[in-house]
Inverse folding.
């Protein structure tokens, strides 16, 4: 007896007839309505009576919301693997992780040759399929930027760019019967998908043994390979009415390890009975037998993946329902890193709801190593990942909901990105000042400050927050505001990373129908003079004008250059021109352009995938007011050879209107936030030149841009009175110092 412990799934195997194109579509929709899990279609591209299977799958994906979709099986000789890899990944992304890949080496060669495919022998067909799997897996692997090169005899790529990665671990299932195909299944595939009608008595057991042996030889656990079976009503195991099928399917699950039963029928009544009567009864009976036998169930990882687990993390104790990614998983490369830093966490937790965040946090507290909390992962400091610890990633809490039109109150999941928020509220003529890049996560920015391109007119992001939902260290869920736990509400606006896991933010948006967005490129050969002139103009400009200046040190083939990104926060082009033209006098202009656009046209939705790099080395400071001396000092930093990039962001105007004691972000008398980045991993050089040249002009810092670990930086981030209040909050809400990675405030200090 062989039971691999796979969760049982049930699906349909439909005929893609084109006589009435909507018939197979309606049967697919019925499959979902009947409570089944999977829709598959035959794939015979040479058959003119059939719809093209891939086109049909994409159409059905748009008509359904839950079922997974696959060809049964796709004809590889007529579908080049490099293109197929991108097609499957695209469908998986568009459908929310519902695409699977059934593959076959091809059987009807006369018809395929008629379509222009060179004929292969059976052995060549297996070789071609093996090469195709390498191409497909390689293109899905975005953990490296190295172009893919696979030098097969039948399928090869030479320098193909990788990606996109699918939304989930797409299963590659092979339709296999003969020994070489079975060995290939065990060595490289995720599933074995035969049809019962092509099997003789004992073939399932013999096939399982062959697949298992090949898996073991390849260093895999045989349970990694799902066993699927196409079944036809009225034959084999499905004789008699549907009510008589249950015992046979239970036996197939417990004796032959079948985990997925695919019903080959186009009869709606049989599909409905399969979902309503058969599947529930089989699940119940198999669950009872497994409980009695103590059968291990759930996901299975290879020996190689298990070897990458970190000692001190109880991987088998992850709370039920919380998605978790380990170092050996295919998705690990997508979640290990932040924008600037390549991390190596021992486990990444991906909760979908606030209750799952509670469970994930309780679990994480019991594990070894640091605990990182991540919303978007764009934070320059890189503190939302770690090495060897646990990362709690709230990226799936990404909803954007208008809860009050009159006050423009918007409830935003902490895992949303500001680009998606801007797009969601733009049609109402609303905007929220929120950084300068759409990939930044809501949770990090809305608990730190939020220096944005509308800031001089509308203030910081935190100045418009009216409530937080937050999970505290003890697992309790609080909704805090100016009226409910006001002291905690104060602390979350500026030091939220020290106090809990924010799951949603209520913010009152501003009315911002359209803005003027200008970009200017300057020769920065004399960066000190450029910075001083630009800063003097910006700090004295009308509040509608907010400008950010980015200066690069240049390299062998070019000198220093600067780019100013400037927003005039209205569509009044005459006023905009009058305010923008003086900025052209800041330095030698190399390029300029301006346009009227919604704010969402500047902060647009972008991909959130980060693959990091070396640990970032940066220094940050807040400049009370620009002066020639301050400009010269910053120019010296850029030209020192220790800084590769210098950034200045305007934080005057409305930011200064808020009293210093109103939020835990207390720096309310400054005109600019300044950040310098090193071009090397060693930070000693940048620290030396920053401390000597820039630091004397600064008063405080913006903590999301600072990576200096020296303890005195905490005093720069939080003035003494602010720090005293935050320590009191820590003693109340986080006495065990669970949240100790982001400018940690020790409650016992």
């Amino acid at each position: 007896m062989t039971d691999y412990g796979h969760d049982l799934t049930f699906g349909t195997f439909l005929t893609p007839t084109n006589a009435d194109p909507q018939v197979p579509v309606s049967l697919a929709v019925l499959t979902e309505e009947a409570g089944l899990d999977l829709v598959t279609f035959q794939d015979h591209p040479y058959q003119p009576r059939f719809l093209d299977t891939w086109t049909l799958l994409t159409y059905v994906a748009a008509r359904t919301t839950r079922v997974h979709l696959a060809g049964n099986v796709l004809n590889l000789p007529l579908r080049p693997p490099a293109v197929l890899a991108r097609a499957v990944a695209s469908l998986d992304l568009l459908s929310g992780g519902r695409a699977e890949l059934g593959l076959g080496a091809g059987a009807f060669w006369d018809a395929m040759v008629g379509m222009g495919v060179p004929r292969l022998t059976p052995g060549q067909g297996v070789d071609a399929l093996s090469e195709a799997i390498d191409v497909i897996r390689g293109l899905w692997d975005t953990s490296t930027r190295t172009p893919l090169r696979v030098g097969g005899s039948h399928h090869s790529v030479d320098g193909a760019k990788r990606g996109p990665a699918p939304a989930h671990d797409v299963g590659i299932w092979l339709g296999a019967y003969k020994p070489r195909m079975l060995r290939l299944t065990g060595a490289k595939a995720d599933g074995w998908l035969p049809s019962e009608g092509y099997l003789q008595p004992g073939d399932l057991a013999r096939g399982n043994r062959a697949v298992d042996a090949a898996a073991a030889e390849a260093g895999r656990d045989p349970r990694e390979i799902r066993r699927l079976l196409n079944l036809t009503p009225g034959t084999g195991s499905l004789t008699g009415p549907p009510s008589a099928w249950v015992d046979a399917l239970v036996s197939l699950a417990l004796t032959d390890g079948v985990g997925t039963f695919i019903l080959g029928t186009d009869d709606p009544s049989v599909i409905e009975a399969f979902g309503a009567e058969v599947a529930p009864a089989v699940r119940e009976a198999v669950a009872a037998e497994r409980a009695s036998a103590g059968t291990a169930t759930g996901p299975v990882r290879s020996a190689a993946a298990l070897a990458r687990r970190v000692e001190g993390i109880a991987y088998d104790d992850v709370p039920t329902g919380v998605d978790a990614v380990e170092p050996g998983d295919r998705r690990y490369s997508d979640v290990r890193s932040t924008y600037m830093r390549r991390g190596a966490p021992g486990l990444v937790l991906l909760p979908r709801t606030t209750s799952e965040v509670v469970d994930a946090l309780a679990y994480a507290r019991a594990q070894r190593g640091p605990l990182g909390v991540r919303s978007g992962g764009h934070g320059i400091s890189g503190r939302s990942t770690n090495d060897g610890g646990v990362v709690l990633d709230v990226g799936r809490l990404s909803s954007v909901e208008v809860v009050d039109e009159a006050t423009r109150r918007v409830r935003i999941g902490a895992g949303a990105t500001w680009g998606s928020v801007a797009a969601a509220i733009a049609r109402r003529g609303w905007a929220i000042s929120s950084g300068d890049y759409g990939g930044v996560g809501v949770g990090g920015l809305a608990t730190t400050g939020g220096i944005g391109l509308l800031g001089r007119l509308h203030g910081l992001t935190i100045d418009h927050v009216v409530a937080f939902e937050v999970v505290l260290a003890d697992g309790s869920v609080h909704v805090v505001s100016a009226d409910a736990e006001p002291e905690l509400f104060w602390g979350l606006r500026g030091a939220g990373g020290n106090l809990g896991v924010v799951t949603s933010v209520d913010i009152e948006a501003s009315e911002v129908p359209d803005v003027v967005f200008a970009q200017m490129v300057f020769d920065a050969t004399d960066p000190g003079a450029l910075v001083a002139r630009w800063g003097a103009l910006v700090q004295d400009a009308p509040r509608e004008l907010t400008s950010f200046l980015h200066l690069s040190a240049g390299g062998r083939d070019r000198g220093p250059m600067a780019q100013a990104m400037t927003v005039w926060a209205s569509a009044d082009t005459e006023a905009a021109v009058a305010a923008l033209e003086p900025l052209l006098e800041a330095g030698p202009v190399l390029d300029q352009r301006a346009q009227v656009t919604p704010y969402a046209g500047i902060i647009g939705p972008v991909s959130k995938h980060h693959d990091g790099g070396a640990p970032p080395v940066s220094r940050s400071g807040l400049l009370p007011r620009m002066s020639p001396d301050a400009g010269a000092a910053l120019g010296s930093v850029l030209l020192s050879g220790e800084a590769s990039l210098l950034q200045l962001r305007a934080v005057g105007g409305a930011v200064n209107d808020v009293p210093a004691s109103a939020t835990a972000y207390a720096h309310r008398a400054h005109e600019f936030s300044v950040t310098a980045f090193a071009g090397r991993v060693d930070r000693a050089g940048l620290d030396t030149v920053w401390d000597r040249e820039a630091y004397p002009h600064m008063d405080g810092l913006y903590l999301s841009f600072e990576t200096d670990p020296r303890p005195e930086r905490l005093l720069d981030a939080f003035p003494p009175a602010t720090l005293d209040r935050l320590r009191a909050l820590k003693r109340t809400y986080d006495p065990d110092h669970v949240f100790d990675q982001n400018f940690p405030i020790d409650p016992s200090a």
Remarks:
- The longest strand covers residues 515-523.
